[in-house]
Amino acid sequence: MTREAVAATEVFKALGDPIRWNIVQQMAQQEELACSVLEDTLPVSKPTISYHTKILTQAGLIEVRKRGRNYFYSLRREVLRSLMDEMWLLAPGPRLVSSDGEGTGDRAERPVLKAAVGDDTSRSAALLTW
Amino acid sequence: MTREAVAATEVFKALGDPIRWNIVQQMAQQEELACSVLEDTLPVSKPTISYHTKILTQAGLIEVRKRGRNYFYSLRREVLRSLMDEMWLLAPGPRLVSSDGEGTGDRAERPVLKAAVGDDTSRSAALLTW
DNA sequence: GCGTTAGATTGACATTCGTTGAACTACTGA
DNA sequence: TCAGTAGTTCAACGAATGTCAATCTAACGC
Q1: How many domains are there within chain B?
Q2: Chain B residues in contact with A84 (beta carbon < 8 A)
Q3: In a domain, B87, yes or no
Q4: pTM of the model
Q5: Does residue A83 fall inside a structural domain?
Q6: Which has the higher per-residue pLDDT, A106 or B37?
Q7: For residue A96, with 0-12 CB atoms within 10 Å meaning exposed, 13-18 middle and 19 or more buried, which class applies?
Q8: CB-based contacts of A86: which residues, under 8 Å, 6+ apart?
Q9: What is the pLDDT of residues B105-114, one digit of tens each?
């Protein structure tokens, strides 16, 4: 049980709740999200929202900015990207190319590398060209 | 709270436990993992292992094969990949391109997740120039 | 058959999680 | 200064989670 594993699982755990996943998705749309918006869009009370945003903050997923008496949250996308990198090590393969297009579509299991960490990983990694 | 969100959070929740994340990582190395191996490598009792593998199965992350009186688990990488796709929608951007190159640059700020130190993934982690 | 082994299920327990009302803090505007 | 507002923190609660000993089931070897 490595130290890095603890960090990754903390982020996973933070994402593993419908309400928090909802919050993260809303934040991905706007550059910054007011707390009041969450109160309007989420079916839970104010303390509960505070509780969830705290967990997201502790996991490093969001950043809090206080302006006057209003709070604004923003998504730390680099944390999501690091997590994706780590997942990619476990399941390497070609990935989405464009966001508006249909993607690669052929998620169809081209022979996956036996070991996620093989020495020739670079060959398949070179396939990632977005 | 869409249905697809529920599915995603279920997978996240499954990954959000150190022991289960450890199991998934072990599975990523081998093509198929014997249950007995887990008993040797994990610091928990047999029922607990059974409990965790069940959760991973329900989340769709692993597949179970029974041969004789032995059980073999294998990682369903496509589930991991669709999860990455979904995360990529929230944090799009260039990704890992080559192993010896310096990555994409905007990822090179600082370790957002705690670095893997001294475990078996450290070598491959060097691929990620975060 | 019969004992053994691999692993799942069950039941019980302690811990953690998610939720809320109430109280609190900090800022606003008059 | 003082009432009102935004959001947090606190205390408490029920629900879910993680763990293990005991039990069960199915396959094995003899």
Answers
A1: 2
A2: 84, 87-88, 91, 95
A3: no
A4: 0.79
A5: no
A6: B37
A7: buried
A8: A8, B113, B128
A9: 444 445 566 5
